[in-house]
TrEMBL record:
GO terms for molecular function: hydroxymethylglutaryl-CoA reductase (NADH) activity; hydroxymethylglutaryl-CoA reductase (NADPH) activity. Pfam families: HMG-CoA_red. SUPFAM superfamilies: NAD-binding domain of HMG-CoA reductase (SSF55035), Substrate-binding domain of HMG-CoA reductase (SSF56542). One of its GO terms (biological process) is coenzyme A metabolic process. It is an enzyme of class 1 (oxidoreductase). Pathway: Metabolic intermediate metabolism; (R)-mevalonate degradation; (S)-3-hydroxy-3-methylglutaryl-CoA from (R)-mevalonate: step 1/1. It comes from Christiangramia sabulilitoris. Keywords: NAD, Oxidoreductase. This is 3-hydroxy-3-methylglutaryl coenzyme A reductase. PANTHER family: 3-HYDROXY-3-METHYLGLUTARYL-COENZYME A REDUCTASE (PTHR10572:SF24).
Amino acid sequence: MTKPIHGFSKLDKSEKINWLAKNYLNNDDSAISVLKQYWNTNDELQKLHDEFIENTVSNFYLPLGLAPNFRINGKYYVLPMAIEESSVVAAASKAAKFWDERGGFKASVLNTKKIGQVHFLFQGEFSRLDKLITKIKPKLREAVKPITRNMEKRGGGILDINLIDKTSELDNYYQLFVNFDTRDSMGANFINSCLEKFAEVLQEEAQQNPEFTAKEKELNVIMSILSNYVPECIVRAEVSCPVEDLSENEDMTGQEFAEKFIQAVKIAEIEPYRAVTHNKGVMNGIDAVVLATGNDFRAVEAGVHAYASRNGRYTSLTHAEIENGIFKFWMEIPLALGTVGGLTSLHPLVKLALDILQRPSANDLMKITAVAGLAQNFAALRSLTTTGIQQGHMKMHLMNILNQNQATDQEKEELVEFFTHHTITHSSVIEQLENLRS
Ligand code: MEV
């Protein structure tokens, strides 16, 4: 059995790989080659990537695709999307073109508040705690001045600090609930630094407060951390057009399409099993842009899904209706994104992605990202309610199957042609490939 290793982080990259191969990969040289094959030949660039995280042994590539023709508030964008799932970029591009021909997307930022909390325990009289917090608010703000100065110059900073009594849900539990404006940065480091300072001051002030009992002086900070739930950092994306303009061919009228589409959205609104998959489709678009622009997709995912359940039942993020002959499709979601700080100036591809988007502000990026999500959901529902999803998916999947089976360019060409007239399944592709080869 493999023994635990001490000091793994002290080994250099090759030593780490050799240890891995020896202990977990049967000393397989080809495994080592796979890892090394992804090292960048540019040492400086490789070093940059090595230093993003700890114990780096290689790079993990994702394709970066482009979805052009996104008209958002009258301006054209090409969206950089980092994603491994075939057909997402194609679907986004298709939806962009569809809506470009019908007036484009509209998007607006409704608010941009970020939230952080100091979670603490206090055993005593609420009124005395409340009095202390009111008294020390200026002190709390003063204590974080070195952290907030630059943010304030950019128009952001701390919006308000509130004491929240949570003792009805958990004994002795209170919060300092703080709202922040972090301008163009996602603001995680800024918020957490402020919160930790608040915690320090809060604890000191409690200890020194002559009005507190001995027990009250033991005010105990449990943790200080931002919240990835940002229900007041909301962006709205929408499209609309006359119902008759939705029709693309004789198979379905605009009215028929709209009604079926709206029904599909309504199902996701009331049925959580469907809502999760429906929203997963939204996140296909959102995550791809979030990743390409160096933002934290885990934070976005967590926040968005919490928002989707804010009324006690998980529901659709998107909504649709027909009003006075106009089809409307929209979504409001929380997106805490940044276009400065973090990876944005460090990762060359992230920098490039932001250049591709014409160096957006955080608000612009919220709009673009929300539109990517809405477009993706539109594309998915359009396929699902008309041709079915597999037709498009399997076309893209065909290439993956061929690549997995080392098909030559000639074989690919012949089989792509063959499968324009035949149903694609994994087994039928393998069968045809074998036929060709025999
Ligand atoms: C697949 O990645 C996403 C879909 O399942 C979304 C949906 O069902 O709406 C197609």
